């Protein structure tokens, strides 16, 4: 008791004064097509957490308008943040951003909603301590390697042209979305035009084990990996597929936590993991997965969810951790948006992003752009 009283003044809390949820609507420059559908209008939440000194931490929810990547949507994000997660933050003291995921644990899943709030608290924490978010997370890289993800195109000719533009721009690897009917033949054609380019494919869970013989043909194409070939919730059939294929399997949709990661690696379901902050419930869990994979000798890279600038900045900060050994999907802002909501925008030179050195996420919010794209707003006082 005495000891606790004596040290009490050393326990620093993060005094949250207000949370603001902004719902944004931004239009992608080009429609993006995956095996599960096409999107062009990006609806999402920007979260803002304000402290007693006027510092503002920002986060971004990566859920889509429809539950076609995972079960979460923009509207479920609002419901869960407003009715469950924000009340938890109002009722509890937060000493460190690592506390947040533990406080959220009684609420099952809803990982993107959790991550949007946790991310804003991480940014706020870094700003209060006048350090970069990257350093706050334990990252030390000054530059990060990035690749680009290319959606399913109307024609092979258009695909080849898009690849060429991105190879010329210096991107470190090219990811090509595939689905039944747009896979082996297309990739063969791509490989013959780009014999030495690091290429991978992402199926977004479009296949089953019945396609094993078909998928095995990819082994001739020297792909870096195939991402999420089988069901979004599977790690068993992926182990069978990996045992029968030379091409490394990378899991995306199937991995929601450290526990999922541990089990997938133990089963041999994959050789590589795509870490998306939103999909795993936030930065704290993302770091746990990273640390475990690094110990196990499993390569990881940072995935993307067609983020605006705030989400992009979080991805960049996470990617500075040393276990992110492969180029991620965090391409430059101008690949997606006419105008982004951060200043400066994310710029890619020769396939690398220079990590910003300003506190927190390291980019300023472009208040005018933020205002322009905001379609709804809710404020919660603490
Ligand atoms: O599977 O990685 C995916 C986009 C939307 C939904 C799922 C995925 C993707 C991408 C694009 O591949 C990543 C990006 O450029 O942000
Ligand atoms: Mg994917």
Please state how the strands of the largest beta sheet are arranged side by side: 5-6-7-8-9-10-11
Using the CA coordinates, give the radius of gyration: 21 Å
Per DSSP, what share of the residues sits in E-state strands of 2 or more residues? 15-25%
Structural class: alpha/beta
* List of distinct ligands in this structure: 2-succinylbenzoate, magnesium ion
Helix share, percent: 25-40%
Describe this structure in words.
It contains 13 helices and 15 strands. The protein has 382 residues and is α/β, with parallel strands linked by helices. It folds into two domains: 2-131 and 366-381, 2-Layer Sandwich (Enolase-like, domain 1), CATH 3.30.390; 136-365, Alpha-Beta Barrel (TIM Barrel), CATH 3.20.20.120. The strands form four sheets. It has a seven-stranded parallel sheet. Helix 2 packs across helix 4. The longest helix is centred in the N-terminal third of the chain and has 18 residues, at 74-91. It binds 2-succinylbenzoate and magnesium ion.
Task: Note the main attributes of this structure.
alpha/beta; Enolase-like, domain 1; TIM Barrel; 13 helices; 15 strands; binds 2-succinylbenzoate; binds magnesium ion
Summarize this entry quickly.
This protein is 35% helix and 21% strand. The chain is an alpha/beta fold.
Which helices and strands occur, and which strands form pairs?
Blueprint lengths: L1 H6 L8 E19 L2 E15 L4 E5 L13 H18 L6 H6 L7 H18 L4 H5 L5 E3 L2 E3 L5 H13 L5 E4 L6 H10 L5 E4 L9 H5 L9 E2 L8 H9 L4 E3 L6 H10 L4 E4 L7 H14 L2 E4 L6 H11 L22 E2 L8 E3 L9 E2 L1 H7 E8 L1
Helix pairs in contact: 2-4
The protein binds 2-succinylbenzoate and magnesium ion (MG).
The site of 2-succinylbenzoate has 12 residues, from loops.
